């Protein structure tokens, strides 16, 4: 269950926080921030996709770390991956901490590569998955879904239409001949709500999910094996900046290039932020206190 809302990121004393449902037409924010403002390297705008747990908590972690280092950070909520990359390429955003490669976000990186720069890999165990609750006993691989569409309402519950996982899932449905299913476009929040409801009544459901994600700590879930490899192998999560970011933010770029999180660290951060704290901000703060050595090394 998602016990805490994802978007409760509250500004600190030294932090400028701007939330918006979308980056409208990828235009400039009313609040000028980041290197484009010409106010020095300690102004940074970070984009975060609404409802993407790993993105949300890692962004909040860096927000708090940078605030303690005297940075003025604007966190801007974006509706989907498409406008995120458009804003980053155009310089409206300085950073995006959740670029999945080589497959999930490949189309965006290919499109905007000349306007972006890779600032390093911080997580290397990411996977895209087609997932069912563990109580669904007769389905263990994606191939097992074939012919069972009626059991699952004829749908695979997806997330935002611009997410790379949706493209991979469409290819997977075609590749496994799952003609009795349609891919339901919704949002991460709606997908999780559907999972919560089905799980509570022990009804069959199949969803698009990914690791790392806090849902695995809340439910007994089963990622379906993918004999054809159509969902892709393990991916790496990169930080991307707009072109020229590293030269205008040398100190921060150096910290980001050295930043790494293990699977266990990421799981504990998500759990603390999304399931244990009174808010995402409070949960991350508590995690930082419990992992002071790790936090100190982030800016060493």
TrEMBL record:
ABC-type glycine betaine transport system substrate-binding domain mapped to chain residues: 42-289
N-terminal signal peptide: 1-24
Chief location bin: membrane
GO molecular function, one term: carnitine transmembrane transporter activity
SUPFAM superfamilies: Periplasmic binding protein-like II
A single GO BP: glycine betaine transport
InterPro entries membership: ABC_Gly_betaine_transp_sub-bd
GO cellular component, one term: ATP-binding cassette (ABC) transporter complex
Subcellular location: Cell membrane
Keyword annotations: Cell membrane, Membrane, Signal, Transport
Pfam families on file: OpuAC
Keyword Repeat: no
Organism domain of life: Bacteria
Protein name as catalogued: ABC-type glycine betaine transport system substrate-binding domain-containing protein
Organism: Actinocatenispora comari
């Amino acid at each position: 269950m998602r016990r805490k809302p994802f978007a409760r990121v509250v500004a600190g004393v030294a932090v400028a926080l701007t939330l918006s449902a979308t980056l409208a037409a990828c235009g400039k924010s009313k609040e000028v921030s980041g290197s484009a403002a010409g106010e020095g390297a300690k102004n940074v705008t970070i984009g975060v996709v609404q409802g993407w747990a790993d993105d949300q908590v890692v962004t909040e972690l860096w927000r708090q770390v940078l605030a303690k280092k005297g940075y003025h950070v604007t966190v801007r909520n974006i509706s989907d991956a498409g406008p995120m990359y458009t804003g980053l390429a155009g310089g409206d955003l300085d950073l995006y901490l959740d670029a999945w490669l080589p497959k999930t976000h490949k189309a965006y990186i290919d499109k905007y590569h000349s306007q972006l720069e890779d600032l390093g890999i911080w997580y290397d165990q990411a996977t895209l998955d087609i997932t069912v609750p563990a109580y669904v006993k007769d389905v263990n691989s994606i191939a097992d879904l074939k012919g069972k569409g009626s059991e699952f309402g004829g749908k695979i519950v997806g997330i935002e239409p611009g997410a790379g996982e949706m493209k991979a899932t469409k290819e997977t449905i075609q590749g496994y001949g799952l003609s009795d299913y349609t891919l339901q476009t919704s949002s991460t929040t709606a997908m999780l709500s559907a999972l919560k409801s089905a799980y509570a009544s022990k009804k069959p459901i199949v969803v698009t999910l990914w690791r790392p994600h806090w849902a695995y700590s809340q439910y007994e879930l089963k990622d379906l094996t993918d004999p054809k490899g159509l969902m892709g192998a393990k991916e790496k999560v990169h930080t991307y900046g707009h072109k020229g970011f590293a030269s205008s933010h040398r100190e921060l770029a150096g910290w980001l290039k050295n930043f790494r999180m293990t699977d266990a660290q990421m799981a504990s951060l998500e759990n603390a932020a999304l399931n244990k704290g009174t808010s995402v901000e409070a949960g991350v703060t508590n995690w930082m206190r419990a992992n002071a050595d790790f936090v100190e090394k982030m800016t060493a």
